[in-house]
Automatic annotation (TrEMBL):
It comes from the Bacteria. Gene3D superfamilies: CobW-like, C-terminal domain (3.30.1220.10), P-loop containing nucleotide triphosphate hydrolases (3.40.50.300). Residues 9-189 form the CobW/HypB/UreG nucleotide-binding domain. It holds the Pfam family cobW. This is G3E family GTPase.
Length: 346
């Protein structure tokens, strides 16, 4: 679990948007700190702001890689980020949390390349599965989201079947059997809110061996092209009414749309919650930092699988009021108009 002979352990967390990766990351960080182990984090977001990073202890060294996924546009930056983290912070362990729309095979590939000239111990890849969402997609067994989720499942050495409380026992058993068929080599742990045995997870006790199956990396070296648009089409319609420069290129994932809204004014909390309840099914993830007119506190809100959560926070440094919506081909203008109505601008 900790650095030995100057070799830094690297854990990679994979899983689709809203699966619970950041929850697991928080638990891992807290556990490591209790063991007097110094963790560092690389957080990758396809959007322009890393709101999940606000949930990470401010004392934990963190590198943010925004505006793309590690497997394409920001991949070349990964070696720089890793080497700087190791040199400047000298962590005992590094955790990479990949964006939910990344193919983990490509991240493994990128990190494996780095291990050729950096002393890295690549730990078994962990994929957090949103069991309830998988259960829904399983009915159709088609679509790009389903395909990407399958890639994330097949790449894992450890599968965490998260959110099992959201489906009945029969469906749980079916989903577990399905995961075993998709990845017969992975160890499967059932969980609610990513409550797992962290000692076993971090020390490799779940596995027969701690080795990485590099054959997967070699076979799937170019899997990124199935999910990433390397022509840099501008799928991301951002709110251009504000003084934010969005002119630089962003990698967009073919079936994934990101809309970022910067608020000019606080909004009513009840009206905002009502809007979140009305979000179309095409939006499967949303998060943001908000100021409300009816309370002095600021809130981090998260939305996944049609469930929302609000947490009072005190952001570190200057943080704008912002909301990020991630989904497939949704009506961004509708969301923009609804949010501007809440602000009293329409």
């Amino acid at each position: 679990m900790t650095q030995q002979n100057g070799v830094t352990p690297i854990y990679i967390l994979s899983g689709f948007l809203g699966s619970g990766k950041t929850t697991l990351l928080q638990k891992m960080i807290s556990f490591l700190q209790e063991q007097h182990v110094k963790p560092a984090v690389i957080m990758n977001e396809i959007g322009e702001v890393n709101l999940d990073g606000m949930l990470v202890d401010a004392k934990v060294p963190m590198s943010e890689m925004l505006g793309g996924c590690i497997c394409c546009t920001v991949r070349e930056d990964l070696s720089t980020e890793l080497s700087q983290l190791i040199e400047n912070e000298q962590p005992d362990v590094i955790i990479i949390e990949a964006t939910g729309v990344a193919n983990p095979i490509d991240i493994l590939d990128a990190v494996t390349e780095l291990s050729l000239f950096m002393k890295l111990d690549i730990k078994p890849l962990i994929t957090v599965v949103d069991t309830a969402y998988l259960n829904e997609l399983y009915e159709a067994q088609s679509g790009k989201t389903y395909s990407l989720m399958m890639d994330q499942i097949r790449a894992a050495t450890l599968l965490i079947m998260n959110k099992i409380d959201q489906i009945d026992d029969v469906r749980q058993a079916e989903m577990k059997q399905f995961l075993k068929r998709m990845n017969p080599h992975a160890h499967i742990i059932e969980a609610i809110k990513c409550e797992v045995d962290l000692t076993a997870l971090l020390e490799g006790n779940f596995f027969a061996s701690n080795g990485l199956d590099t054959s997967m990396v070699e076979q799937s070296n170019c899997a990124c092209h199935n999910h990433c648009d390397h022509d840099h089409d501008h799928d991301h319609d951002h709110d251009h009414d504000h003084d934010h420069d969005h002119d630089h290129d962003h990698a967009s994932h073919e079936h994934v749309t990101v809309y970022t809204h910067y608020f000019q004014k606080p909004v009513d909390s009840h009206a905002f919650e009502q809007l979140i309840k009305q979000l179309p099914r095409e939006i499967y993830r949303a998060k943001g930092v908000l100021s409300f007119t009816d309370t002095s506190k600021r809130f981090l809100f998260q939305y996944a699988y049609r469930e929302s959560d609000f947490m009072a926070i005190t952001p570190q440094g200057e943080v704008a009021d912002v909301a990020v919506f991630i989904g497939e081909h949704f009506d961004q203008q509708w969301i923009s108009n609804e949010l501007r109505k809440l602000e009293g601008l329409l």
